[in-house]
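WARN no homologs supplied; continuing
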Amino acid sequence: MNTLYLGTQGFTYPSWVGPFYPPGTPASAFLARYAAQFSTVELDTTFYAIPRASTIAGWRERTPAGFRFAAKFPQTITHQRGLAGCGDEMAAFLDAMAQLGDKLGPLLLQMPPSWGAGGFDALAAFLQTLPADFRYALEVRHPSWLAKAMLPRLLSLLQGHGVALCLVQHAWMPVLDETTAPFVYIRWLGRREDIPDDDFSHVRVNRDAQLDRWAGQIKGYLDAGLSVYGYFNNHYQGHSPASVRAMQMRLTDAAEPALQEPLFPR
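OK structure emitted
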């Protein structure tokens, strides 16, 4: 069944209090307030460390049925080890994430910009070790992966393992329209220099043309029976909850669909 999950990259931003979270909302209530509005979030904290069991239990308990957490693989796996010799770290991370149960969405391998196509063999070996009972997405940031001789090899490898190639909107990579899994994973990223003061309380960059094009692309995926997970960061426009709303409005007639009235049935 095709399902649309749209959310933000993270939810713990103090500058959202007022424009998104009600005034006076304490940090401890951010997630519950967030999950009343959107059906998914991408966790950035897992990139820095594997969360404790008590933290994961809190995430699960403060979100309603049908909510989905996407999570980044730890940087020890992607950035420090380049996917090589990290079996213990991978097992520990997957064991932790499995505690989310049916609220667990895809797990993202966000590779560093320095990781070029010379890592193909390491990627192929790593994918062979991944348990099949999770969903995975791969984000590459080095242009060598998109070379004419390399891209078909990458797509074939990912398709063989059912891993989604992360589709990214960012200045450093061209926009792709390639599907390699039964779901699509999209990330909308802005440049830090566009919003250097980290005031994420309002929209500051107009992306209407990009959003229009992406909406058409997403409709095509849904029409093809694919589920879509999409996540905006604050630097994309300045206030990622507004970016989610803008995309929702392009994909449905409802202005602000709530989690309890989903865009598409779960």
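The first strand starts at residue 4 and ends at 9.
OK
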